[in-house]
Amino acid sequence: EAQTVKKVLIPVHRPGHWVLIVLDLANKRLEHYDSYVGSAVQAVREIDTVKQAVAELLAEENKAFVATGSS
After folding, report:
1. In Å, what is the CA distance from 9 to each residue of 16, 22, 33?
2. What are phi and psi of 46, to 5 degrees?
3. Mind listing the pLDDT tens digit for each residue in 7-16?
4. What is the pLDDT of residue 9?
5. Other residues' Cβ atoms within 10 Å of the Cβ of residue 33
6. Which element (helix H / strand E) includes 51?
7. What is the value of pTM for the model shown?
């Protein structure tokens, strides 16, 4: 059941490598992981895209997520 899922792993492909966004449902957080020292602007765009999708899915419950991570 969806209620037992605590984390969702979302791989994101960038040209030349992948990054990982973790949707932590239990703690209402988005975490961004990138092994390359990359563009913070790109990381923010990726997180914002996922935040928007999550917000749309959870709109009726009005739950917010905090974005964190390392790039």
Report:
1. 20, 5, 11
2. -65, -45
3. 989 898 878 8
4. 92
5. 15
6. helix 40-57
7. 0.64
What's at 7, amino acid-wise?
K
Pairing of strands 29-33, 7-14: unpaired
> In sequence order, which residues have a C-beta less than 8 Å from that of residue 9 and are 6 or more positions away?
20, 21, 22, 23
Q: Do 25 and 9 touch, CB atoms closer than 8 A?
A: no
Half-sphere exposure of 44 (CA within 13 A, CB side): 3
Q: Find the length of the chain.
A: 71
Tokens found for residue 60: 């009726």
Nearest-10 Cα torsion for 61, 45, 29, 6: 80
